[in-house]
Amino acid sequence: PVLRSPVVSPVLPIALALSLVQSASHVELGLRTDGRGSVLSTSDLGTEAIGAVSATPTAKALVDTPDFGAAGTYSLQIGSSDLGRTKAPFFNHTLGGRLESRGEGTLRGEAFVGATRARTEPLTDAAAVAASSATQVASTSPIGSESLSAGIGGDLRLDRGRVGATASYGISRGTDAASRVVLPTQRALAVVASGSRRLTERDDGTLGLSGSRTLTDATFGSATSDVGSATVGWKRLLTPTTWAMLAAGAAVTHEVGWIGLGPHGHATRIDPAADLIVDHDSEKLKVRAWTKLSPYVDRLSGQASSALMAGLVTGWAPSPTLAFSAAG
Fold first, then answer.
1. 302 backbone φψ class: left, alpha, beta (φ>0; ψ -120 to 50)
2. Closest Cα to residue 52, out of 136, 104, 118?
3. How many CB atoms lie within 10 A of CB 158?
4. In contact, 65 and 55? CB cutoff 8 Å
5. How many CB atoms lie within 10 A of CB 225?
6. CA separation for the pair 96, 276 (Å, rounded)
7. Quick check: pTM over 0.85?
8. Is the pLDDT of residue 163 over 70?
């Protein structure tokens, strides 16, 4: 079939977390359920609804000391979908680790690693089709995928503000030669820096800088997407437990090697960039709503395009060992 204008419904994961606390070290057990869907429009068969459901049990081991914190996570996603000729369940594995320094000092650091082996389904995965044109979602069958990532970061607290930076590197690809035709090997290096300065008792000025380079081994050859952005903003404390931030700026994208970029094989453009966040964090209730306008590097093709994304995350902890959360 010919894919025309895929439409993706909001992702609505629902999570249940149970914490078993033992002094400075403890284990958290969680269960997350997902429902995803899209509408496939074909030239000869009309429209077809495609859906997927899954459940993801997660185990996280944590160590907390006055000087550092460490965490290791493993999750197993078990699910099924309408995509493809078989309805056999799929199993996706994710491993992660994080180490961060703590204490009374003004400088803090962190290091993190992650690995995933999964089955990607472009037409039922909202992240796969976000900011993608119809030609970029080229598969109506499940695709095996695997990825590795690692990064380091730091945060320095100042008298009237803070500055921080994070650098990360990741590689992802299809699990075999056939899947790499649709999900080619992709390497990405990213650096993100931010800063804030206290203006009044309730107001902060903010600055955000980011840069990334993505190399994609496409079927027509190697291609590169470079993205850089800068925003300035204002953050205000609305109540003792609620704050809001609005930031705006610009992003520059430079692409080399893509088909259709003109006689020189490269193109540069400038797009607007913006962030809007409202965050509430009290003892038992946590809510964050956000909207972001920025370039998005497609994980199937590696090409960059401007995307408007939004999300809502809520959490409720009725007791120290029981928490519920939902996100969309």
1. left
2. 118
3. 12
4. no
5. 25
6. 29
7. no
8. yes
How confident is the model over 163-185, as a mean pLDDT? 89
Query: Rounded to whole angstroms, how far apart are CA atoms 300 and 184?
Result: 7
CA 48 → CA 4, 118, 262, 277, distances in Å?
Answer: 11, 25, 36, 35
Angstrom CA distances, 60 to 22, 63, 257, 278, stand at 13, 10, 42, 28
Structure confidence at residue 102 (pLDDT)? 79
- Residue of 199, 190, 196, 225 lying closest to 208 (CA atoms): 196
The predicted pLDDT at position 258 comes to 63
pLDDT, tens digit, for every residue of 219-252? 667 788 999 999 999 999 999 999 999 999 999 9
- The beta strands (E) that lie in the chain are given as 4-8, 14-22, 25-42, 46-64, 68-81, 90-101, 107-120, 143-158, 161-174, 186-198, 203-218, 221-239, 242-256, 266-281, 285-297, 304-319, 322-327
Residue whose C-alpha is closest to residue 58's, from 325, 320, 249: 325
Residues 6+ apart with CB under 8 A from 68: 99, 100, 101, 102
Evaluate whether 325 touches 312 at the Cβ level (below 8 Å): no
Query: Own/partner pairs for 149-154, CB < 8 Å, 24+ apart?
Result: 149/113, 149/114, 149/115, 150/111, 150/112, 150/113, 150/114, 151/111, 151/112, 152/109, 152/110, 152/111, 152/112, 153/109, 153/110, 153/111, 153/112, 154/107, 154/108, 154/109, 154/110
Q: Rounded to an integer, what distance in angstroms lies between the CA atom of residue 259 and that of residue 219?
A: 11
Strands 266-281 and 285-297: antiparallel
Residue 297: what pLDDT? 81
